[in-house]
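Researcher: I'd like a structural prediction for the single chain below. Treat it as a standalone chain; there are no partners to consider.
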Amino acid sequence: MKWNSDKSVKLSVWCTRLALLLAILCAIFSPHIVNWYISVSGKAEWLAEPILISLLACCVPALGALLWLHKLLSNIAKDQVFTDENVFLLRRISWCCFLAALITIIAARFYLVFGVIGIAAAFMGLILRVVKNVIQQAVIIKSENELTI
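Model: Treating it as a single chain, here is the predicted structure.
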């Protein structure tokens, strides 16, 4: 069985669905996860509340990004790659990354590890903006080519 782009898209769709499920479970069980982390790490108990708030706040852009990513992958599976809708979806996903970066960089005041996560999220947002710009230019070229006789 040979690996191809259709199988790659299907794998990406299933990975996105798994990530959605994990994000939902993380949101539901985050109080337990944070309490467990505080107990095993030996961190001060007062850190539980800011960590929990930060974690829950990050669930919002994470779920949004994953839902839009799922829609983007669905479009790609239908061979709708260079479209205005995909540009829109990539823009929204990048803004979700920047929002998560902002939340975690603010949360780094309480727990330094969040700063590293924030930098990674901002970098991912930047990469997505570049990809969005490339796709946007491809949409423009595609529409110009469709007008050419």
